[in-house]
Amino acid sequence: MEFQRDRTFFTGRLKSIRFAILGAYKLATTEHSVMVQLSIGVLITVAGFYFDISLTEWMLQTLAIGLVLAVESLNTAAEKIADFIHPEYHAKIGFIKDIAAGAVFFAAATAITIGCLIYLPKIVSFF
């Protein structure tokens, strides 16, 4: 089956959205790191309702959750491409995968910092 490009703007965008949703579903159902991060995102969202965080805090929290999920998704894509191109171990492929994992670390550290800035004062005042 040959790929046929959809040249109409509206249906082309709908197809793009469909592919994006399908990709997000594949990530959420096949990648354990994404499953863990989605679970943490849900727990933090529940915590936001419990602690009645402000609109600004909601925006920062949502941005942090989205940042981690987006960077993890790109990391997964980079790893899948690297494994496809060179299935056996190769030092340069390992280096590339480590760099992609480092980007996830930076995003996660940022999200943890935002979470601490939002929730630590609320937890301390709770006790």
UniProtKB/TrEMBL annotation:
Protein biosynthesis as UniProt keyword: no
Required cofactor(s): Mg(2+)
One cellular component term from this protein's GO annotations in UniProt: plasma membrane
Residues that coordinate or bind ATP: 31, 79, 88-90, 97-98
Gene3D superfamilies reported in the protein's UniProt record: 1.10.287.3610
Transmembrane segments: 34-53, 99-120
Claim: Hydrolase is one of the keywords in the record: no
Binding residue positions for substrate: 72
One example GO MF annotation: ATP binding
Keywords: ATP-binding, Cell membrane, Kinase, Lipid biosynthesis, Lipid metabolism, Magnesium, Membrane, Metal-binding, Nucleotide-binding, Phospholipid biosynthesis, Phospholipid metabolism, Transferase, Transmembrane, Transmembrane helix
Cofactor annotation remark: Mn(2+), Zn(2+), Cd(2+) and Co(2+) support activity to lesser extents.
GO biological process, one term: phospholipid biosynthetic process
Domain of life the protein comes from: Bacteria
Active site: 72 (proton acceptor)
Membrane topology according to the record: Multi-pass membrane protein
UniProt-annotated location(s): Cell membrane
Family, similarity comment: Belongs to the bacterial diacylglycerol kinase family.
Stated name of the protein: Diacylglycerol kinase (ATP)
Organism classification: Bacteria, Pseudomonadati, Bacteroidota, Flavobacteriia, Flavobacteriales
